[in-house]
UniProtKB/TrEMBL annotation:
Organism, scientific name: Mariniflexile jejuense
Name listed for the protein in its UniProt record: Uncharacterized protein
Domain of life where this protein originates: Bacteria
Signal peptide segment: 1-20
Key words, A-Z: Signal
Length: 445
């Protein structure tokens, strides 16, 4: 009986190990990146367009999978209309006319793709590049912390005066519904605009809580992959791949939850200045916001931020690798069970943030896995981070620290067709102490 009991215990232990999941970083019993994502979008070819979308779509319209559509110029969905897109539909953004698609306030997009049949927004060029076309913009009537309502008119070239009303966002309805984006890929967006700014892959301006944003991949965006201004929205299973700018940027009083999402940066593509995996701010200029309104608050769980360097130490020395996370003054971030791997350093706090208990309680890092970063959490332009390391290195935060290369850290990092960026089971050989010796601040790849 004792032998049987021991064998049963060993069997259960083995089965439990096989079926176990790593709790940090992106999670899932299966690799949820399968089928719908594409990590080599420049090698995909699509049919020539059979239909043109241009001007205003002011009545309910449905796009069919059997057609290939081309966005020509700035296309607006207006007049409370709903644009429905069938799974598997391909929409090409025209390079010559700097095309974009905007869902104006009060209108909706229903782009409800399938895992096996995602909806594709991509460039119409034969050789595709970042910034070939504009991107996708959703404008809602949820709150922002700006004075009055905002407008995204500055993004558009040659906009007619009558079209300015279609670019407004903001209101009081936290539950506003701009529609559904699910199993959607947005590729080669983020065109440059005349004021030296860029479109984003996906911009959500004052989008409300009834809007569904899940399983979205933005690849090779010249602007930010995902940017959120105000509103109150939940984001789930987002992928940002090789963005030139920020992967996830939150601003203007957004109250956002982001879960189970991934950002993969390349030092050979991404901007080496002011471009991060995650940037959380409440404003660009203090003069533009009403401080009686809510500051930006982001609750993040099970994120993976990964820097894809062939030689991390060399890339850091060349200035190609910066911080993964940047938190601005008067913003709140609560990030939990997430992985930050291969950055310089992991986190930077804006220099105007006073390091005291009141402020640090607004910026939480709990159950984190900091891997192969040259330093962990710093204040901007200050190399002395002893107070921050002592705070976040406290055992009550359950943060761990390690030095492993990407192939050792992730399940199937090098698989070009079906990569798996979940953390390897039982491969964390780490310390719960947040303080590295000075000689440990060098990195190995």
């Amino acid at each position: 009986m004792k032998i049987f009991t021991k064998l049963a215990f060993i069997y259960l232990l083995v089965i439990g190990h096989v079926n176990a999941q790593q709790e940090k970083g992106i999670i899932g019993s299966n690799n949820w990146l399968y089928n719908w994502t594409e990590f080599k979008p420049n090698q995909k070819q699509y049919d020539e367009p059979t239909q043109i979308l241009t001007g205003n779509i002011d009545k309910d319209t449905k796009l069919s999978k059997r057609e290939t559509y081309m966005l020509l110029g700035n296309v607006f969905v207006t007049n409370n209309a709903t644009l429905t897109i069938e799974p598997g539909t391909v929409i090409l953004g025209d390079y010559a006319s700097k095309a974009s698609l905007t869902i104006s306030k009060g209108s909706k997009i229903i782009a409800d793709g399938l895992e096996t049949d995602p909806i594709i927004f991509t460039s119409n060029r034969g050789v595709k590049r970042s910034g070939d076309w504009g991107g996708l913009i959703l404008l809602g009537d949820a709150p922002t912390n700006k004075f009055g309502n905002g407008s995204v008119a500055s993004f558009y070239d040659d906009l007619q005066q009558t079209a300015y009303t279609n670019t407004n966002y903001g209101g009081t309805n936290v539950e506003s519904n701009s529609g559904i984006l699910k199993f959607v890929r947005i590729e080669f967006a983020g065109k440059r605009v005349k004021n030296d700014d860029y479109f984003n892959g996906l911009l959500l301006a004052c989008v409300g809580s009834k809007t569904i944003i899940e399983n979205i991949m933005v690849s090779y965006s010249a602007g930010n992959s995902f940017e959120v201004w105000g509103g109150e929205v939940c984001l789930n299973k987002l992928v940002s791949f090789r963005s030139n700018s920020n992967d996830f940027k939150f601003n203007y009083g957004t109250q956002c939850k982001i879960d189970n999402s991934l950002a993969i940066r390349s030092p050979y593509i991404s901007s080496s200045s002011a471009a991060r995996c995650l940037q959380v701010a409440s404003y660009n200029n203090k003069q533009e916001v009403d401080f009686s309104k809510k500051v930006t608050k982001v609750e993040a769980k099970n994120l993976t931020f990964l820097n894809d360097s062939e030689n991390l130490k060399s890339d850091i020395e060349k200035g190609l690798v910066k911080e993964a996370v940047y938190v601005g003054q008067n913003a709140k971030l609560d990030i939990n069970k997430s992985v930050i791997s291969g950055f310089n350093p992991a986190v930077v706090l804006q220099s105007s943030i006073a390091i005291n208990q009141e402020n640090l309680e607004k910026i939480k890092f709990v159950n984190m896995y900091f891997n192969n970063c040259k330093g962990n959490i710093f204040v901007e332009n200050d190399s002395n981070n002893e107070d921050l390391e002592n705070w976040y290195g406290n055992t009550s935060f359950f943060n761990v620290y390690s030095k492993s290369n990407n192939a050792e850290t992730f399940i199937d990092f090098s698989n070009e067709k079906r990569p798996d960026f979940r953390l390897r089971i039982n491969k964390i050989i780490a310390s719960k102490s947040g303080v590295y010796a000075k000689e440990d601040l060098g990195v190995n790849n």
